[in-house]
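mind reviewing both lines:
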Amino acid sequence: MPGTMVNFPTNGTTTAGYLATPSSGTGPGVLVIQEWWGLVGHIKQVCARFAAEGFTALAPDMYHGETADEPDGAGKLFMALNIGQAEKDLKGAVSYLLQNASSKKVGAVGFCMGGQLALYAATLNPSVGATVNFYGIHPNVKPDYGKLNGPVLGLFAEKDGFVTPQVAKDVDAAIKKAGKQSEIHIYPGVDHGFFNDERAEVYDKAAAQDAWTRTLGLFRKELK
């Protein structure tokens, strides 16, 4: 994979992340935020896919070295997430990405927990010019949608028991109520995690490919 682990400053300390760069050396910046499993191989592979499409992608390690491979462990890490530290990590990651990318604005994309954190990152930093939320959820993360500085694309699953279609519609409505641009797609017949091709029990190739195409389209349009 065309990536490497890096360290970047986060308000007096440092945080690790996985940075993938295109063959051209630099491209528009994309912040990639992990699922509740942590900074695992799948997320690094997503960064590599962005790099192959010409983007500079950074995935910050939101768990600071910890990962999980089963739901109980992931749930504990998920609920133990320090929101204050997460805010510092996200701000630092955006700043580092801007220094290494060719664009003046960056995109933010996240999956599961990361989807909610991508929305949060976009409200913390005006340099985030577009956000893609894959079935985002975290009960302790409360983005102020009025501070968004670019459009949001929400990608959800009809059979999702965590982020139900109604929850997806409520998020869409809340963003629009704040006067910001939002578009959602609810993929029929698929479940939470449908984009993760390392989880055969939920992965859906057709939905994942359509979601990827929409994601690339938004970032190519907004991150010039």
Notes: The chain has one domain: 3-222. The longest strand covers residues 3-10. Residues 3-222 form a domain with the Rossmann fold fold (CATH 3.40.50.1820). DSSP finds six helices and eight strands in the chain.
